Amino acid sequence: MHKVNLRNFDLNLLVVLDKLIEERHVSRAAQSLNMSQPAVSRALQRLREGFNDPLLVRTGEGYDLSARAVAIHVPLKEHLKQIEQLISIPKFDPTSDTSLVRITGLDMELSLYIPQLIRRLRRKAPNMRFEILRQEGDSFTMLDRDDVDFCLSGLLPAHSESRLHRFHVDEMPIVCVMDAHHPLADTPLSIESYCKAPHGLVSITGRGPGFMDKVLGELGFSRQVTVRLAGFTAVADYCVGSDLLFTLPKHVADRIALNKPIRTVPLPTELQLPHVNFYWYWHARNHQDPRCIWIREEFQQMLKL
Fold first, then answer.
1. 229, 203 in Cβ contact below 8 A?
2. Do residues 224 and 198 make contact, with C-beta atoms less than 8 angstroms apart?
3. Which among 289, 294, 239 is positioned nearest to 264, based on CA atoms?
4. Per the domain annotation, does 76 fall within a domain?
5. Measured in whole angstroms, how far is the alpha carbon of residue 123 from the centre of its chain?
6. What is the CATH number of the domain that holds 107?
7. Would you call 58 helix, strand, or coil by DSSP?
8. Which of 13, 184, 209, 264 has the highest CB neighbour number within 10 Å of its CB?
């Protein structure tokens, strides 16, 4: 079989050929394609050259198909349909979807939103599966490596920002959490009393100072971090009956303090920072994916309730 260089063949001509074979008439094919008859005649000539075959053959009653045209009629229509499907925007049907959705973030932050989101998604996509992955230092790197589909974070990416998309989920102030009987529980916190108290710190990497240490340093203060935790889940256990203070986003602190002998109090005036903003992030590779779009839209609808 003679090998054809597709770069030298105008594939748009195949649409014209399909209609010519179907109509077996140049004028009717032109009308169906909304083209002029001379344009279709020129296309037919180029097709004959490309296929090295007459394709449409004149007879006493008009045109008939060559043997080659008859042979390619069915596969041509099938291939054009496949190309159309390839180019068309893919459809997503949540009722039949069985894919795996991978999400990462900090445990307590995820617990504020993701269980409710998954319940909502599973009502419409009962066979969709979910995997909540432990955040390995930097959730943005996990997105970049395609280890996860989404991440929830109150941080801003230090890299790969141009490859990430996001929408705003929530914002909340920073507060202080302590045992209900802590000596500081019933008096307004001053920056001096805050700094003198022993502190607990939730640190994902396990290294370096927390964001509040940087804020204190800029003001000429420092604090002593006595306990460093890898996640929020155990914060209540370390607070109850101890003299530790934890500094956390308010909704996270409220969840930790729920049904526990724990107090949530405002930070000293000097340390009342701008609210923490939480975002739902995904990678550019999935930005136009119908499944990703559907999940994002469902999440945004949930947040409006």
1. yes
2. yes
3. 239
4. yes
5. 20
6. 3.40.190.10
7. strand
8. 184
